[in-house]
Specification:
The structure is a homodimer of 165-residue chains.
Chain A (H helix, E strand, L loop, with lengths): L7 E15 L3 E8 L5 E6 L14 H23 L6 E15 L5 E14 L4 H14 L1 H6 L5 E7 L2 E4 L1
Antiparallel strand pairs in A: 1-2, 2-3, 4-5, 6-7
């Protein structure tokens, strides 16, 4: 079967996470991937300084892992698609946020910067590696999400109803 | 010691993740939290349909877990701070992306929507619960990140140098 050069196809990726609070600050999460049909069990916790028991990594560790690995996955996947062979890839990422506290109010947070250092072992030219990274950025779900302002919908359960909050 | 009502303090939160590719699509990640000084080992993989071995959850499962649990942590932490007692909290989140493929090019992705359904067991008034959720949104690192357009810095190792790409 031939695929024409400009044929456009789309696909949807939906991930559902259901979490319940347990212990002091621990959360137990069931994640369902609509892509693979697989279910994953994950857990987060906080350290004692935040009232937790350190029984699992904190939420931000999951975020940092997602940011770094999503790009790595695309680099490896697109290496084949673009025929730019690579032998190995390592990525280091830094996530930097700031919190601000006024008086005794709860703190407010803001992102300061996100940086990725990419180390690729390959005989490909620098130009080809840049092309590969460029494609990986456009294909990385996390990077495309962070690159735009997203509205998050929130609903609160009130009796048997769900109310926008 | 008294804290004045309008004293402003800031704090920095830095999370470092270093990941190496192993196996077909597996990534092994060491996450260091500059907050707690703790190190966490995490791993991602893809299912066979994406060339992986399903040896760990995919990157997007980590993202969904981070999104849901970061807000839950703030709801529990700020419940104490704001003196709005809660007995329990559960949150379900949905992350929705779309991929677009033109011809045989690598796919490109875009976020479609992020939604959180919050179920709080509490005797507090609806007004107080809305106030608690409002504070949790402002304190949630992930939510504040998703709510704005972020630039991600990328550097590629070329010989012994790091080059912006």
């Amino acid at each position: 079967m031939q695929v024409s050069d400009d044929e456009v196809k789309t696909f949807e990726v939906v991930i559902d996470a259901t979490a319940k609070a347990v212990g002091k600050m621990r959360n137990e999460v069931t994640v369902y991937s609509g892509v693979s049909g697989n279910t994953f069990q994950m857990a987060t916790d906080e350290g004692p300084v935040h009232g937790g028991d350190s029984s699992a990594p904190p939420p931000l560790a999951y975020f940092a892992t997602a940011m770094v690995t999503c790009l790595m996955t695309q680099i490896r996947a697109f290496s084949k698609r673009l025929r730019i062979p690579i032998n190995d890839v390592s990525v280091s990422g830094r996530c930097h946020w700031r919190g601000t506290v006024v008086g005794r109010n709860p703190y407010e947070t803001e992102p300061i910067g996100f940086d990725l250092d990419i180390d690729i072992d390959s005989d490909a030219s620098l130009e080809d590696l840049k092309r590969l990274i460029g494609a990986a950025k456009k294909g990385c779900f996390i990077e495309q999400t962070l690159g735009q302002a997203n509205e998050i919908g929130h609903r609160l359960k009130v009796g048997e109803d769900w109310v926008e909050v």
